[in-house]
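Hi X.,

You mentioned you wanted examples for the new student's onboarding notes, showing what a folding record looks like when two proteins sit in one file. Here is a clean example. The first protein comes first, with its sequence line followed by its structure tokens.
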Amino acid sequence: CQAQVTKDNTERSKQIYEWVLSGEFGKVCAEFDSAIAAHVDSTKLANAWVNLSERVGAFVKVTDIRTEKENGIDVFIHASEFEKRKVDFKWIFGLDKKLKGIFFVP
């Protein structure tokens, strides 16, 4: 029996994605745990988004949201369509409900 992901984190993953799409990177960074916050700030996140957008084009839509539970950690994958290609956005929430990882996977 696979454990269910936390409902709060399901809603939070959607909200964080909306913040990324609207360029509200400071709000995204406020969700980081201390380990990721030590390495990624809003400027780095914004630069990563700009670089990604230049390669894949404008956002079109989310095509699917998949969830996984790994050792008590909630993982959300937002499969997304952009003008030039598809990209998976992966959010990882720790036991403390803070964002432990954020990945853009073309």
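Then the second protein repeats the pattern, sequence line and then tokens:
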Amino acid sequence: TWSALSNKMRMGSLVFRVESGVVDWWHGGLVADEHYLAVKKDLSDLHEKFLWAEANPEDALRIAEAGRAYATEARSQAAMDAHVMKVAKRMIDNDSCGKGSGSTRS
């Protein structure tokens, strides 16, 4: 689901994230090896990353905690409101609301 990543991160789980190129509005500040462990699209390095996490529990916990903190802040009501306002402002600034584009709305 779209919310699965944030839910796992907000629970404090160490996330193994496949680098698929798919992003959501709140992913902009996510950093591999700081907030999650990046895994190749073909999963060829998944086992290696798992073994690293098992062998480095303190580092894995640090990454999981940083991911939890980031996701909690990024998915807060204030962050979501700020994002909606940013998108609305961009639409108004770009005249994307119909004004001047042949629309009959006034």
